[in-house]
Amino acid sequence: MLELIAAVRSDGTTGDTGDDEDERSGRSRWERLRQSDFVRSAPFWGPPFLLMGFFVYAAIGWNFLLSLTDYERFQGPDYSNLDFGMYRRMLDDPTFWEATQNTLILLIVFTVACLVAGLLLAILLDREVRFGRGFRTIYLLPMSLSFIVTAQFWKWMYNSQFGIINEFFGLFGLGPYGWLSNPDLVLFSVIFALVWQFSGYTMIVYLAALRAIPQDQYEAARVDGASTLKLYWRVIIPQLKPAMVSASVVLLLFSLKAFDFLFALFDGYQPRKGADILSTMMVREAFARSQWAYSSAIAIVLFLLSLAVIAPYLYQQHRQGNL
Amino acid sequence: MARAKLDEVTKIFTEDDGSEVVAVDDVTLDIDDGEFLVLVGPSGCGKSTTLRMVAGLETITDGEIRLDGTVINDVPAKDRDIAMVFQSYALYPHMSVRGNMSFGLEESTNLGDDEIAKRVEESAGMMGIGDLLDRKPSDLSGGQQQRVALGRAIVRDPAVFLMDEPLSNLDAKLRAQMRTELQRLQNELDVTTIYVTHDQTEAMTMGDRIAILDDGELQQVGTPLECYHRPKNLFVAGFIGDPPMNFLQVTNEDGTLIDHSFEYPLPPQVASAVEGTDSLVLGVRPEDIELEPDQSRADDHTISATIDVVEPMGDENVVYLRLADGATVARPDLAEQDAAEGTDVNDAAVEGSDDAKGGIAGESRSTIIATIGGMQHFDDGQDISIRIPPDAIHVFDADSTEALHNRTLQDADAVPGI
What we know:
heterodimer; A: 323 residues; 74% helix; flat; B: 418 residues; Rossmann fold; 6-stranded mixed beta sheet; 6-stranded antiparallel beta sheet; 12 helices
């Protein structure tokens, strides 16, 4: 803001010749600036702007600074010696690579599964089924539950001895499976539970978009000779693209910070082998092992991943004039 | 190309509360190969439902629809070989014009890509949208979208074209232009066409034949001129023609039509046609009414009236006239409503009762409309006589609303289709 004022002032003086004029014009510029919408609206946008700047952007900046130090345990950060040592440590850390790999698997499988499941539910519900409203509420309900609750619930479901899922497979003489203990299965057990919780959300987003498509689109396609499958594939689903994009952004961002569900599911900072992701690793390094600088570096990596998700979306929205 | 036949087709919708609504009631229509049939009627008359049953978008409650002799009641829409133009155009917004036009061919035929591309270009050329092929519908004006919608139907080369009020979203000028263009196109392609509209002008100008529907029931099928000059009942007489036909509520006393303010002796041949029916409606088209400023020249067939408002249209003047007190102008919708309820229209109206029904007729009760040449001048409030020529009158039974006598036409033989 100060820069801007300075810019306006200097601009105000350049064109003028005489000193008096200079002064007068400068004052009137100052006066005009004081009357401008920008300044007069400042009391409204200023405070939230400052709060956001301090608590979000300054915190991110400070976090980056921390990641350049060697801060660990209780000795306090030393800002005199900044380097990328923590990032080099990351590259040599097999735990980090495993967590990154798991994060990407979660990111992709969870998002795609949610989009597909939500789409199928939305299409079924859109076909004027009996009790459609009831189903809609039922499907959306998991979304309203706390992750602590659903994690506890899935822990029971997945229990290798008494869990209802193993009981079910037992009926066919299969299992028991270690849904949460087998390193090959555990990540997909987590993804399945999260899809269960989130597909109601994608369903609602799709349903709203489906309801916005006029009935005569369906009718025109039918008269044009399209089968039901082709009708959805070629006419309806392409029109759901904006809904798909916005739902994907929400799901991708969520999967990057899916910490609380895992924390509750595994009762602590250390998920079972095969289910560690960057966010759990970040919290563990900080609060279980007091590796503050290393944890900050992981946080920066997560931040960059989030940015990679949201930046294209914001750019596209900006280009379409929605922002 | 095909011959379409609707045989006693009925559509009943069941509401959520279990009640039934008859949308289309026992409609029988025979549409010739290459014919342009217009389904016309007020909103809610079942014309769109009828069209949608032909398209396969609504199930048929009762009766049969045949295409070239084959019953298609249970054939799904996608297999019926029909093309439809929607009121909203229903273009696929995510596809280019080319995509929109080729979609139907891709889905309903086994044609190769080259052949499809060739046909799309041909049809686009015919519709004058050749240079829009790579644009999206949202980049087009309403008129251009309309052409794309038509092009999408034409390219299919279907057995039957169905059009559901395709011109109603265009402005008046473009609509008039598209009207002629559509007619020319239909003549060229010679494809059987069923066209739905609520606009009687479109019906009159475009159709080979028009079918007038009201309340789900077919009122009359005929050439436009036939429906105009020989309406079967009050509804058709009132619906076709703009400004509409004037109706006067009268009683028949030995061949003379009596109202409080006038007596109108019928020619013998008309008198015999209406013999035995007491309560009648006298109908006369606005263009048949002659205005006689000189009241001394009044005769048996003149009625005294006062000029209420004159609307100059340039080529003609539309004159609104107030009849002397007591004369009653009947309205077909009022008559029908009362007839359906079994009340005597005549009594209710002549007594000028202040009940709700009397109120419906409202202002139109004592106003009749005449159209005269644009160069004739009359003042508002002027007292004059109006002459109703005996050969131009229509007489309807007020109870059944059926036409008992239609006007005589001297040159009927010279004009085809009357």
